[in-house]
């Protein structure tokens, strides 16, 4: 009986590794299936199949993705953060995504539906998705990519005081980028003949990313939405600046929510330039308030078609499904 | 009427993987046959294949394939290819280089690509087995485009960003001759200024061995005795694969780009036997009709033809049919034209045959020789009354005909002239 018989079973229940013990011929089949993957991903797959321990899954998934990425792009996976994008950064098209899925299904003995694939945009999405499948957890809200137009449209803060060029938001984190252009008005005086991005502004940028998280990533109480005009800074702790940032530098900002309960939201945040640490904030606190939702955002869970997602239309080429012409 | 020229060639064949090697082997009558390792089993009576050297593409996994380092092909392209797609991709690169075409020359609405291959029986079998074994949802997403008839055009059109006409031709061993004919028409009608015509075959166990069931394959183990078109002792054909690409261009393009063509393509004709699904008409009626129509279209009298590259595959029935057709078309057939089947050297390339042998005709016209009919010891009396060349003639031909015939009694004749 082909495994695909269970393909409509959804994600609600854990998928245990095959109930029969892991036999030598299974190991041989696994070795053959993963012959073009790194030895460590093969080892991880063996461990997972023997123990069912989901800790081994990320290594398998990364190994499989790596195997399908053109060799000259594989370096990107070496120190990839979870925001590495499958299509834009790794050149993975929808057919390659299918190849990845089929191999992951085969190796981890699981079944993935077409609908579930559509929201997988980053390496982190894939890892989280597989992990939730295996543990039988509900899938988190998928990562949303917000271009500057979208950020400008939802944020209460506007240029020339908006310090985000692009951002991605999921239910567990938000990441953003800001390029210091040198045209920022305050750089004329900070410092004399020596433009340096003020640390206070960098903290402001992290705060703005936290605001964006509340508006786009936070799951509000039913029937409510975060009121964009009622979010304010209350405090921060453990802020340290590690690096002088100047025009031309691209700030990579990230925040992670630590605790969100109206009216207080706390985050940890950091800014990097390339691989270098620039700013760390152990805690940034905002206060916020709800308003009645006008258009009810539909919480995204597994199996909800993409068309139900409120807000941003997915960029062209997003659906991870093969284009079939015939 | 607009004129059509052959301006570029690419070869991956059993007798060479570039035009220079192919020319030498045609002149010197060196065959490309080897004992094919997968056939060396007691239950397989067929032993020889016209093998493709420098390439190893017998695996069902394209990432296992090896090919000359001068060809760089990304996994992204390889993954959807059949072996014949690999051969054809490499032949395309040669032909583009040979015709001195730029990327914009290849990718525009007036440049098309016609292709012919029998698909990939090996990959069809493999993917179907996977479907049975692992279930439909775990089949390769590229199983279909790599395996079905049409795989050649799908892959090449995408890889080379072709924007003009594209189509696959399926008339068995006449397929790529048909492709050439219709490409000619498109240029004459002004629909296209340039068309790549591609023939390809896997030439492996799954592509060749099914013909054993028809008893049409030679069982010889001696390569010099295996493929003997028109010989009294012939016992069937030897299979082969590979690919050939011809670049056809309008006269305006030849002038604009200032290139020296191999040959002019004067015209073509086709006719069907209306006789049997697999056996050629005993009198070669369709083949004769195709040649007459081609000559009329090309405005060439039979006595102007210097050389015929015959379809003759070395089968018992087919060679006789074609010999009769040739005698019917050419009144003074015992002296003119010179005739040979180069399948004595290459083996039978099935869908590839028409394109490959048209490529040989182009080389013969440009280099000024007529390749001999190798391995001919004693002409079958039924094939008598013809000027079959036993050795290569150093005489430059002016006008040549290429014959191709396929299952169902499909016959195509193409007429080329020295440029």
Overview of the molecule:
The complex is a heterodimer of chains A (326) and B (419). By secondary structure, chain A is an alpha+beta fold. Chain A has two domains: 24-135, Non-ribosomal Peptide Synthetase Peptidyl Carrier Protein, Chain A (Orthogonal Bundle), CATH 1.10.1200.10; 144-292, Hotdog Thioesterase (Thiol Ester Dehydrase, Chain A, Roll). Chain A is 29% helix and 19% strand. Chain A has helices spanning 24-33, 39-51, 57-68, 75-78, 94-108, 114-117, 123-135, 148-154, 199-216; strands at 144-146, 166-169, 174-179, 224-226, 232-241, 250-261, 264-273, 276-287, 290-292. In chain A, strand 6 (250-261) and strand 7 (264-273) form a beta hairpin. In chain A, helix 2 packs antiparallel against helix 3 (57-68). The two termini of chain A are 28 Å apart. By secondary structure, chain B is α/β, with parallel strands linked by helices. In chain B, 33% of the residues lie in helices and 19% in strands. In chain B, the strands form two sheets. Chain B has an eleven-stranded mixed β-sheet, sandwiched between helices. Chain B is globular and about 65 Å long. In chain B, 59% of the residues are buried. Classes of the chains: A alpha+beta (326), B alpha/beta (419). At the A-B interface, helix 5 of A face loops of B.
| Beta-strand segment tally of chain B | 14
Major sheet details of chain B: 11 strands, mixed
How many DSSP H or I helices of chain B? 15
Binned, the helix content of chain A reads 25-40%
In N-to-C order, the SSE pattern of chain B is EHEEHHHEHHHEHEHHEEHEHEHEHHEEE
Instruction: Provide the low-confidence segments of chain A as ranges.
Output: 1-14, 296-326
- Summarize the amount of helix of chain B as a percent range: 25-40%
Cα distance, first to last residue of chain B? 16 Å
Estimate the strand proportion of chain B: 15-25%
Topology:
The complex is a heterodimer of chains A (326) and B (419).
Chain A: H1 24-33, H2 39-51, H3 57-68, H4 75-78, H5 94-108, H6 114-117, H7 123-135, E1 144-146, H8 148-154, E2 166-169, E3 174-179, H9 199-216, E4 224-226, E5 232-241, E6 250-261, E7 264-273, E8 276-287, E9 290-292
Antiparallel strand pairs in A: 1-2, 2-3, 3-6, 4-9, 5-8, 6-7, 7-8
Helix pairs in contact in A: 2-3, 3-5, 3-7
Chain B: E1 4-12, H1 19-28, E2 33-35, E3 48-50, H2 75-78, H3 83-98, H4 103-106, E4 111-116, H5 121-134, H6 143-147, H7 151-159, E5 166-168, H8 175-188, E6 194-201, H9 205-208, H10 223-226, E7 239-240, E8 242-250, H11 251-257, E9 263-272, H12 285-298, E10 307-309, H13 316-329, E11 338-340, H14 343-346, H15 353-367, E12 387-388, E13 399-406, E14 410-418
Parallel strand pairs in B: 3-7, 4-5, 4-6, 10-11, 10-13, 11-12
Antiparallel strand pairs in B: 1-8, 1-9, 2-3, 6-8, 9-14, 13-14
Helix pairs in contact in B: 1-15, 3-7, 8-15, 12-13
């Amino acid at each position: 009986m082909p495994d695909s018989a269970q393909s409509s079973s959804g994600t609600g229940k854990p998928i245990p590794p095959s109930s029969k013990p892991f036999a030598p011929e299974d190991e041989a089949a696994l070795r053959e299936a993963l012959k073009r993957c790194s030895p460590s991903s093969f080892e991880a797959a063996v461990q997972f199949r023997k123990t069912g321990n989901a800790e081994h899954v990320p290594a398998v998934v990364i190994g499989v993705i790596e195997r399908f990425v053109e060799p000259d792009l594989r370096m990107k996976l070496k120190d990839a953060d979870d925001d590495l994008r499958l299509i834009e950064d790794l050149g993975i098209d929808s057919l390659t995504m299918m190849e990845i899925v089929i191999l992951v299904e085969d190796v981890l003995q699981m079944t993935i539906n077409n609908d579930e694939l559509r929201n997988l945009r980053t390496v982190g999405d894939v890892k989280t998705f597989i992990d939730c499948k295996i543990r039988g957890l509900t899938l988190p809200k998928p990562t949303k990519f917000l271009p500057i137009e979208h950020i400008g449209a939802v944020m209460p803060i506007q240029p020339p005081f908006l310090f985000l060029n692009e951002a991605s938001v999921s239910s567990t984190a938000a990441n953003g980028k800001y390029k210091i252009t040198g045209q920022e008005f305050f750089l004329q005086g900070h410092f004399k003949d020596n433009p340096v991005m003020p640390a206070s502004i960098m903290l402001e940028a992290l705060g703005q990313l936290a605001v964006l998280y509340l508006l786009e990533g936070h799951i509000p109480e039913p029937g409510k939405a975060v009121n964009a005009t009622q979010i304010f800074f209350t405090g921060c702790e453990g802020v340290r600046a590690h690096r002088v940032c100047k025009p031309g530098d691209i700030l990579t900002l990230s925040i992670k929510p630590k605790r969100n309960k109206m009216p207080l939201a706390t985050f940890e945040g950091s800014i990097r330039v390339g691989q270098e640490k620039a700013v760390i904030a152990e805690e940034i606190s905002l206060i916020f308030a709800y308003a009645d939702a006008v258009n009810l955002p539909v919480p995204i869970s597994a199996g909800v078609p993409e068309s139900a997602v409120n807000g941003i239309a997915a960029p062209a080429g997003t659906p991870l499904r093969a284009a079939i012409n015939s | 009427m607009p004129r059509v020229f052959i301006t570029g060639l690419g070869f991956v064949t059993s007798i060479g993987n570039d035009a220079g090697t192919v020319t030498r082997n045609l002149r010197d009558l060196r065959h490309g046959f080897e004992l094919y390792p997968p056939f060396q089993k007691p239950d397989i009576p067929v032993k020889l294949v016209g093998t493709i050297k420098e390439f190893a593409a017998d695996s069902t996994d394209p990432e296992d394939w090896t090919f000359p380092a001068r060809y760089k092909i990304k996994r992204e392209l390889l993954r959807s290819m059949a072996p014949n797609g690999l051969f054809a991709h490499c032949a395309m690169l040669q032909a583009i280089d040979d015709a001195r075409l730029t990327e914009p020359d290849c990718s525009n609405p007036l440049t098309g690509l016609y292709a012919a291959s029998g698909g990939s029986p090996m990959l069809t079998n493999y993917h179907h087995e996977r479907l049975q074994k692992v279930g439909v949802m775990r089949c390769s997403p590229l199983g279909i485009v790599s395996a079905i008839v049409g795989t050649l055009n799908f892959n090449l059109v995408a890889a080379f960003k072709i924007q003009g006409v594209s189509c696959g031709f399926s008339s068995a061993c006449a397929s790529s001759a048909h492709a050439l004919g219709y490409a000619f028409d498109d240029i004459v009608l002004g629909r296209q200024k340039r068309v790549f015509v591609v023939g390809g075959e896997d030439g492996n166990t799954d592509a060749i061995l099914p013909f054993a069931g028809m008893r049409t394959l030679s069982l010889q183990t001696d390569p010099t005795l295996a493929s003997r078109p028109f010989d009294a002792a012939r016992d069937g054909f030897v299979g082969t694969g590979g690919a050939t690409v011809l670049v056809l261009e309008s006269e305006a393009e030849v002038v604009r780009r200032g290139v020296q063509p191999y040959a002019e393509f004067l015209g073509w004709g086709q006719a069907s036997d209306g006789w049997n699904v697999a056996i050629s008409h005993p009198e070669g009626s369709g083949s004769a009709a195709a040649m007459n129509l081609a000559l009329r279209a090309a405005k060439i009298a039979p006595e102007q033809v210097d050389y015929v590259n015959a379809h003759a595959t070395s089968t018992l029935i087919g060679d006789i049919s074609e010999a009769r057709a040739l005698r019917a078309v050419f009144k003074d057939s015992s002296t003119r034209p010179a005739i040979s089947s180069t399948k004595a050297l290459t083996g039978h390339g099935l869908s590839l045959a028409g394109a490959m042998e048209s490529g040989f005709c182009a080389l013969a016209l440009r280099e000024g020789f007529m390749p001999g009919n190798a391995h001919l010891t004693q002409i079958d009396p039924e094939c008598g009354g013809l000027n079959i060349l036993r050795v290569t003639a150093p005489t430059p031909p002016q006008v040549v005909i290429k014959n191709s015939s396929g299952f169902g009694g499909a016959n195509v004749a193409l007429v080329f002239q020295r440029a």
